[in-house]
Amino acid sequence: VAMAYLAWRLAQRWCPSSLQVISFPVVQLHLNRTAMRASQKDFENAMNQVKLLKKDPGNEAKLKLYALYKQATEGPCNMPKPGVFDLINKAKWDAWNALGSLPKETARQNYVDLVSSLSSSLESSSQVEPGTDRKSTGYETLMVTSEDGITKIMLNRPTKKNALNVEMYHEIMHALKAASKDDSAITVLTGNGDYYSSGNDLTNFTDIPPGGVEEKAKNGAILLREFVGCFIDFPKPLIAVVNGPAVGISVTLLGLFDAVYASDRATFHTPFSHLGQSPEGCSSYTFPKIMSPAKAIEMLVFGKKLTAGEACAQGLVTEVFPDSTFQKEVWTRLKAFAKLPPNAMRISKEIIRNREKEKLHAVNAEECSVLQGRWLSDECMNAVVNFLSRKSKL
Ligand SMILES: CCCC/C=C/CC(=O)SCCNC(=O)CCNC(=O)[C@H](O)C(C)(C)COP(=O)(O)OP(=O)(O)OC[C@H]1O[C@@H](n2cnc3c(N)ncnc32)[C@H](O)[C@@H]1OP(=O)(O)O
What we know:
mitochondrion; 2-enoyl-CoA Hydratase, Chain A, domain 1; FERM/acyl-CoA-bd_prot_sf; six-stranded mixed sheet; alpha/beta; 394 residues; Acyl-CoA Binding Protein; three-stranded mixed sheet; Acyl-CoA-binding_sf; peroxisome
């Protein structure tokens, strides 16, 4: 029920006046389009095209497609209204019912038009899919630059506090793979805006695939394992420039970095229990080693938020700088590091890190498998619903 609620809320959030948005353009198209009629063949082609869309068109578009399909094939909605707790079916019923007495032929035409516009918009945004050689501007969620021997990967969703959505996970993996092969000596991860990162984007939980929440959790675990694996295997010195508060996975990953420089404005918070979740990013292994098991439990189990000074005292942060001089001091230092012989740095990192790699991959696999189960728990679903319905913030 919680997941159904999530999907429903998301549809509402993207389309607050969903009934008007669904019905209004449809009726307008009907008025303007008396001369145009999609054939049954066009309709069938459009149905096949939907299955081939490279990106998920989102809940709002899916609701419109559903409503138009039902109207085109069955006519006006004559089903009984689903109960108030049957949230997904109620959202679908609302969308269909809002089409009123729209003629079947018009619904068919509108369905074909909608699929055509979705295909072209999703096609053009997929031109920067992983696999192609991206320049900095090719990223949707990152700014990646390379100069003075430093590749800088900047998380770039400042209005969302740099929350990591699915696209950002993929783009970071792509940027790390590219940085591991480019001619820079060191790689830096930082955030744009006032946050370093608010961790996993909680709306990632709302986009449920046809296989349901189990498939969603399985896909999430696969993505997470691959994502964390890229940090474990990264061959060059990897440095975090923590410009502001860090939450969740953006904190746990720090245990896999080679140096962590933080502004004194930064905080470090892993509220996994509050979210019904469990530690990831290999933190169940790295944190107890870095800061002692008891201190790790305070953070990872009880969700204690550390200041930058406390995180430095615990060994998670290398050094803290006053916010007013943070950028200047850190980048001066990094530019000096980047002038050191790159092969020597790479080999030294290898000898320090390599004997732990196998262990880290095993920990990563175990953490992902535990999280997969957690994501299906009532505790987790309720926490996500509460955040999305703005009942709770950290
Ligand atoms: C597939 C791999 C999965 C790996 C799993 C990882 C686990 C984790 O990372 S757990 C950590 C998850 N993160 C959170 O729980 C943080 C949730 N966010 C908040 O509590 C607050 O937003 C904040 C304390 C970070 C900031 O509060 P503040 O009042 O300053 O700003 P807001 O108005 O809340 O935020 C602005 C804007 O950004 C959206 N947003 C921020 N963080 C997230 C997030 N993690 N997920 C989704 N959206 C986020 C927030 O909703 C606002 O959006 P709108 O302007 O559209 O309302």
